[in-house]
């Protein structure tokens, strides 16, 4: 076995006409094609080559100076690319996958997010719930004394707002998750049907389900709530179309789980998330709306983590994509 075959770096050698001379195994994955199909073909005829790489290959032929590109979206994922110059006008392309570092960053963010959420959940009871009980009791006494007078109405308002805060606090105290075989499509469909009912079918919902997806071990109520939070978040961003897509992924480096992963993408064409909020998006109390609580996405991340999964966010040209990855049941795929 040659040295380049042992490399994790994808290597592609081009001749003076930008035709592919040789590739290694990692490059087959990068280009999503086997070497027999690639050999001898101009690289600009290969599917999935991004425009910036085309431009760089053209430019390098004018001055023959090396080029470096970052975050190239190739057919096999995202790669940093270095283009070097060899003898006889040949070029050597090296593609370094950024998938691992991106996934590790997402995992670290999830650990911070869930850690802060758990800390907040532990302290809410002691720091907030006890004073709320006193405030509510005092307001009830005022209502009894003031009866129907205007101040009595204000006291009733205090009680209602205290109850609202109590409900928000209660939402943090998730019961012990039940584990049973769960059809992810059923939970997703219930959430989307609720969205259509709430908005009178004013939002166009597009479904793209993979019928072969195996079951997961999960709590149906919690997973349904996760999808409800994502759907409502999309609707509140002003979306007119929401797309739900399910697929199976294999052996992600992000998870210790070595089997199949279920991936659910919820995309919308709404206003998107302000760039300043994106790194903090799944933290409690982070919201871009004046009337938002900042709890919906934090709870979605917590539910995903409780199921051994992960929520992530990608900004689209018009709108947002939220992705849930969750392990499938063992032996769920025969």
UniProtKB/TrEMBL annotation:
Signal peptide: none annotated. Keywords: ATP-binding, Kinase, Nucleotide-binding, Phosphoprotein, Transferase, Two-component regulatory system. SMART domains: HATPase_c, HisKA. Its EC number is 2.7.13.3. The keyword ATP-binding applies. InterPro entries: HATPase_C_sf, HATPase_dom, His_kinase_dom, HisK_dim/P_dom, HisK_dim/P_sf, Sig_transdc_His_kin-like_C. CDD domains: HisKA. This is histidine kinase. Residues 123-330 form the Histidine kinase domain. GO terms for molecular function: ATP binding; phosphorelay sensor kinase activity. It comes from the Bacteria. It catalyses: ATP + protein L-histidine = ADP + protein N-phospho-L-histidine. It is an enzyme of class 2 (transferase). PANTHER family: SENSOR HISTIDINE KINASE (PTHR43065), SENSORY HISTIDINE KINASE_PHOSPHATASE NTRB (PTHR43065:SF16). Gene3D superfamilies: 1.10.287.130, Histidine kinase-like ATPase, C-terminal domain (3.30.565.10). The keyword ATP-binding applies.
